[in-house]
Amino acid sequence: MTTPFPFTAVVGQDDLRLALLLNAVSPAVGGVLVRGEKGTAKSTAVRALSALLPEVAVVPGCRFSCDPASPDPACPDGPHEPGPGAARAARMVELPVGASEDRLVGALDIERALAEGVKAFEPGLLAEAHRGILYVDEVNLLHDHLVDLLLDAAAMGASYVEREGVSVRHAARFLLVGTMNPEEGELRPQLLDRFGLTVEVAASREPDQRVEVVRRRLAYDDDPDGFAARWAEEEAAVRARIAAARELLPRVRLGDGALRQIAATCAAFEVDGMRADIVMARTATALAAWAGRTDVLAEDVRQAALLALPHRRRRNPFDAPGLDEDKLDETLEQFSGEGEGEGEGDDDPDPDGPGGGGGQPAPDAGPQDGDTAARPEAGEGGEPQPSGAGERSAVRAAEPFRTKMLSVPGIGEGAAGRRSRARTEHGRTTGARRPRGALTKLHLAATVQAAAPHQRARGRLGPGLVVRRDDLRQATREGREGNLVLFVVDASGSMAARQRMSAVKGAVLSLLLDAYQRRDKVGLVTFRGSGAEVALPPTSSVDAAAARLEVLPTGGRTPLAAGLLKAHDVLRVERLRDAARRPLVVVVTDGRATGGVEPVALAGRAARLFAHERIASVVVDCESGPVRLGLAGRLAEDLGGTAVTLDELRADSIAGLVKDVQRRAA
């Protein structure tokens, strides 16, 4: 087994190490979510934590790690006789992003269950992680059905395996630790709330610290055992401090004053539910124990807020995580000195420096409507255009609004989501088939029907049904899939009017929000001037798409054909990477095409490529003014899709759009 990188040898990342250590002191804190760019020691620190955890006592031979002091009466390997336990190291179990449902929760032998009535159960990763750490790297890429199972287990402290009336239950209490790169997509709010703490990590910009990171990593790679030996003393000291803090934890006093500060802070930041209050209380208590104190101080409450609240105050996926620290300090000061005086020390609320674990307020993303910009002049199509180079700075998006669902016609087989119809592992049962590989969802009626004609030939004598492998039938189910929503946005001079571009960005932002909620991948192609560019390759990060949209400049000619051809290339490449994910192309333009030879005819030929390949498409018509040319409608006809105005895109006026998309693409 490879020697892990020592926890104490990790350079910097103070917030990350503190959050992990607090969970080691008090597992009731509820785990930690580590957010940050790649290459910032997220996985290294998490894997190193398991070596610091105290040993656990287990019932010898129990596959479910029952505690000998209080064994689970419903343990599938039980009942357990009283007796001494065996000590073993705490486990850290990794859940791969592509794991199957059976690998996570365990597998039941359906054939033996039906034919013999025997609960032959093979435990999964949840059983293995019981009383240890369950680590999910790239947790934001985890499939929805696995997320649902994790949520159930985390909420109930147990895992249930149900197969057509045959059930197995076992305890599954674990410390949930996840790492993620926000550029690759966000987590569902339900799972996000299950993490007790969150930290944002980034690579240091200090040359000396970066040099030390490289030096230690090279030394570890050259001689892992020797490197670990040099840090053994520091590791032993931290391990002893964790044990001492665990012993002190029950004696830590959380007074009324600290409780009022916690409640006031959660109320001030408008977090949903009461889990945040409970997590903050447990975190503040763990902080006091880690510091060797028996009283919770205001500095503990402040640090707990910075760790427990940033991921809970997000109202939509475009809100940057983090807390307004000035507002936090004002709230703590307002409620300091009440109750039993735990508010002392507010003059220096964070001895380790500002920003401990929390993010910063989102910076201003762009100019306001009243900001000065280049004075517009009459440009292409009579629209205002900036003087000089023909490009104007970005404008802010209008407020997003709720849109109704756009879907791809037909039935797909893509990744689970919430947009278009698809054959999936979860959903309503529509039929049965022979299983391909392992059986996951039994169709009981079809299995019995297949086995019934062969009972006499198989020598059946008793009431039991003689079932063979060939009789088993897999249930086919229909649910929803996520799609690739590719935005093709016109950023030319004809779109450069400030009010119009703000409305256009607001519409695209609304569709991006809808894509986030429906678990889609998104991509962004823009065209202006002399060509088109892929502003964002297809990704699960709707945040990244919103950020690129926010800084999008406008100006120049309208190379519509170039934009469509670039989008076609993106779809071609993405089809090779993920053939099962069906695309939906959303073209945001007024339909004008300028520049080059016969730009309108060229754009029409490019659009007909999409129609020929039956790619579902929608044109958002951005044309405004008293004189309208209807060019967006003609473009939609060439695409084989439908056109909708910005006003019609809103949820209350888009009722017929999905039918039009399906009719035109059929």
From TrEMBL:
Composition bias, Low complexity: 361-371
Species: Streptomyces cyaneogriseus subsp. noncyanogenus
Regions of compositional bias (Acidic residues) in chain numbering: 339-351
Alphabetic keyword roster: ATP-binding, Nucleotide-binding
Protein name stated in the entry: Mg-protoporphyrin IX chelatase
Family classification: Belongs to the Mg-chelatase subunits D/I family.
GO molecular function, a single term: ATP binding
Region of interest (Disordered), ranges: 336-433
Family annotation (InterPro entries): AAA+_ATPase, BchD/ChlD_VWA, ChlI/MoxR_AAA_lid, Cob_chelat_sub_put, Mg-chelatase_DI-like, Mg_chelatse_chII-like_cat_dom, P-loop_NTPase, VWF_A
SUPFAM superfamilies, alphabetized: P-loop containing nucleoside triphosphate hydrolases, vWA-like
Pfam name, any one: VWA_2
Residues of the VWFA domain: 484-661
